[in-house]
Amino acid sequence: MSATNLKVAYVAIDTIHFMSTKFPRTPYDTVKGLAYFPRMLDKIRIHAAGELPELYLPHLGSGFDGRCLNFLHVKYDALRERVLAGGTDEEILEWCYENGKRPTDEEVETWTGFMQKRGWRDEASERIVFRLKEAGIEHRDKEAVTMFDFIDLDEGRTPPDFKKWEPPRIA
Q1: Which of 64, 74, 105, 159 could form an S-S bond across to 149 if both were Cys, CB 3.0 to 4.6 Å?
Q2: More confident residue, 169 or 51
Q3: pLDDT over 90 (residue 14)
Q4: What angle do CA 86, 40, 98 make, to 5 degrees?
Q5: Buried b / exposed e along 85-119 (16+ C-beta atoms within 10 A)
Q6: Which one-letter DSSP state was computed for residue 79?
Q7: How far apart, in whole angstroms, are the C-alpha atoms of residue 140 and residue 155?
Q8: How far apart are the C-alpha atoms of 107 and 11, rounded to whole Å?
Q9: How confident is the model at residue 162 (pLDDT cuts 50, 70, 90)?
């Protein structure tokens, strides 16, 4: 297949991706200070309803989901079963703490800080550049400083404006 045909095929797949009826919440959302967790729960719920974009399916329980699961010391299948049994995000997080590991407040703060900055001045920076090009939104590179920013842009949201935290010498 030629590069032109591949690009057309990607555009067709990307269009299907955005035709989905539901996206999970922004990865910036938190439950009890824990970033990304609500998004992972949304992905489970939306998938069960048959509305999760097909391109997301191979990554359920891996990638950032996998990092979050490892942090909590719970398995994806067990979490999926618990989510589908019902309950609030807070109740499900408490279940994770009871059946996996209850991190300290400092560990939660460290996790959230790390995840919110993934791709900013680290080895994942080049991945953001690749993903922006892959999604056809490389013109928005100044808005995608982190992987969370890219996810928001890719799903049609505007990432938070963190310029207020930039030191005066950088801003």
Answers
A1: 159
A2: 51
A3: no
A4: 60
A5: eeeebeebbebbeeebeebeeeebeebbeebbbbb
A6: H
A7: 13
A8: 40
A9: confident
Q: Where are the alpha helices (DSSP H) in the chain?
A: 3-19, 37-48, 64-72, 76-84, 89-99, 105-117, 125-135, 147-154
The Cα–Cα gap between 26 and 4 comes to 33
Identity at 110, one-letter amino acid code: T
Q: How far is CA 11 from CA 14, 16, 133, 135, 136, in A?
A: 5, 9, 12, 8, 8
* 3-state secondary structure (DSSP) of residue 30: strand
Cα distance from N-terminal residue to C-terminal residue, the chain = 45
- Contact partners, residue 55, CB within 8 Å, separation at least 6: 13, 16, 17
Q: Residue length, the chain?
A: 171
The two tokens of residue 15 are 């269009």
Residue 129: pLDDT band by 50, 70, 90 thresholds? very high
Residue whose token pair is 């032109």: 4
pTM: 0.82
Does residue 9 sit in helix, strand or coil?
helix
- Asked if the model's pLDDT at residue 122 lies above 60, the reply is yes
